[in-house]
Amino acid sequence: MLSDMGTQREFPNASDPHAARGDSPNPRGTELVLVDPRQLTFRFADADNHEVVSSVPISRWAARSRNPGRVVRLPTGGRPLEEIRLEQAVAAYLPPGHGLRLTLTNNRHNIVAVRREPAVYVVRIHRIFSGAEPRLVRSLARYVVHNDRRASRVLGEFIERHEHIITQAPRRPRLVKLRAAGRVHDLQDIFDRLNRRYFDGTLQAQITWGPAVLRAQQRSIKMGSFSVEDRIIRVHPVLDRADVPLFFVEWIVFHEMLHGRHEIRRSRGRRCFHPPEFLAQEREFVDYERASAWEKENVDRLFRR
Predict the structure, then answer these.
(1) What share of the chain in percent tops pLDDT 90?
(2) Per-residue b/e over 136-151, b at no fewer than 16 CB within 10 Å?
């Protein structure tokens, strides 16, 4: 006999008349098993493979159906779950009082774009960063907050290792509404004139005024941009004013046109947008010195409507 915490088995003995004749009181010839109610038991099917038989009562919880219940997901507002997870991971390293708006993209040229506002960081980042390991997430947070050089190097090395994924991703066509004619300055006329003079009319690009967004307490303006994928030059509409001289708008457009001629380089894990030959050609602009001086003297006026 086993200890009192085990099962007790009764076997036929010689003094049992039924056992001597081999004629067990159990018609099926099986041994009797007495189960201690404190002992964990397994449930087995009977010999006829009918319902499961158990001598131990089961709880209502255990008696519930084995079918999985409904899956309840938290609302994501239509955003990809991988985007939300990366945003939360990076936000954990931000300084107190600062928020984060992160968007995953498939942009093959502008892999990481950061706009630093007073209370929030706006980040557009390629989806190769989804599922990033903790070290990469910390580097991304340092780059977002401090524009840290070492963090930038870590991100650059990661991007280089995944360059094949970035370039092979299918490009999604975008419909862009172009608006080159402004109230004061006509960008298409400026572009065509500069193209003939400095590029022999060979530079292929489109040009438009960008969205009219100037936020309160904003202390910097991105006066122009060049989209490598779409080859579109965008100029900030704050320059479409009578008190902004034509030669200054021409300088901004010329600068963005140079981005269409010079490729982005990588140096020590960082992308170089303005290599030496870029800067040398920019100085060929006929009003370079005058435009540079006007920017230093009048940039504050651009923040006043």
Answers:
(1) 47
(2) bbbbbbbbbbeeeeeb
Q: Which domain holds residue 50?
A: 1-72
Considering the domain architecture, whether residues 41 and 93 belong to the same structural domain is answered as no
Place of tokens 């980040």: 123
**Per the domain annotation, does 105 fall within a domain?**
yes
Of 26, 42, 72, the domain-final residue: 72
In this structure, the answer to whether residues 163 and 198 fall within a common structural domain is no
* Closest by Cα among 97, 75, 78, 79 to 87: 79
Question: Is 121 in a helix, a strand, or coil?
Answer: strand
Name every residue whose Cβ is closer than 8 Å to that of residue 200 and which is 6 or more positions away in sequence. Answer: none
- What's the pLDDT band for 267 if we cut at 50, 70, 90? low
Rounded to whole angstroms, the Cα distance separating 281 from 37 reads 90
* Weakest mean pLDDT among 17-21, 63-67, 190-194, 225-229: 17-21
Picking from 43, 72, 101, the residue at the C-terminal end of a domain is 72
- Furthest CA-CA distance within the chain: 123
Residue 67 corresponds to which tokens in the numbers above? 């079918």
Domain count, the chain: 3
pLDDT tens string 159-172: 888 887 877 766 66
Question: 69 to each of 30, 59, 61, 65, 66, how far by Cα in Å?
Answer: 40, 18, 13, 9, 9
| Same domain (yes/no): 194, 164 | no
- Regarding pTM above 0.70, the answer is no
pLDDT grade, residue 227 (50/70/90)? confident
